[in-house]
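User: I've been trying to design a sequence by hand for this structure and keep getting stuck. Would you show me what you'd pick, starting by listing the structure so we're on the same page?

Assistant: Good idea, let's start from the same input. This is the structure you sent:
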């Protein structure tokens, strides 16, 4: 259970989230975007060598460091923000603020969305232990 949203499950399909963050994989392309194959040799995610103009993790972050940061941010965030279905959490990890967002469909489950380095939204609530 996530500390920020008691009673709600964590995203079950972390592989989809990780695939998006590391490689830019999507279930379907956004309007006007090319549909990229799900292979590890395309770099369209949020790693330092991404070909997209998006927020990126520093070159010192390995793929495994990024995955570990996603899990730590989901499980024990510093800040959280919730909407009707959208959940956003932030955590400072080694001087980088990691942001993970996902959607919750209460009838279906949790749909993971994205994670990258960012700063917390001003509306986000600080999680206090």
């Amino acid at each position: 259970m996530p500390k920020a949203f008691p009673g709600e499950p964590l995203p079950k399909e972390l592989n989809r989230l990780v695939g998006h963050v590391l490689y830019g994989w999507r279930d379907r392309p956004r309007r006007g975007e090319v549909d990229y194959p799900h292979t590890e040799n395309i770099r369209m995610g949020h790693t330092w060598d991404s070909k997209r103009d998006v927020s990126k993790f520093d070159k010192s972050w390995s793929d495994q460091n990024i995955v570990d940061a996603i899990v730590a941010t989901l499980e024990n965030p510093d800040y959280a923000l919730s909407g009707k279905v959208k959940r956003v959490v932030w955590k400072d990890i080694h001087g980088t603020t990691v942001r993970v967002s996902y959607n919750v469909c209460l009838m279906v489950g949790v749909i993971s969305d994205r994670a990258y380095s960012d700063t917390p939204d001003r509306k986000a609530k600080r999680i206090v232990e």
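That's my pick for every position. To get oriented when you compare it with your attempt: Residues 16 and 27 are 8 Å apart (CA to CA). The chain has one domain: 14-126.
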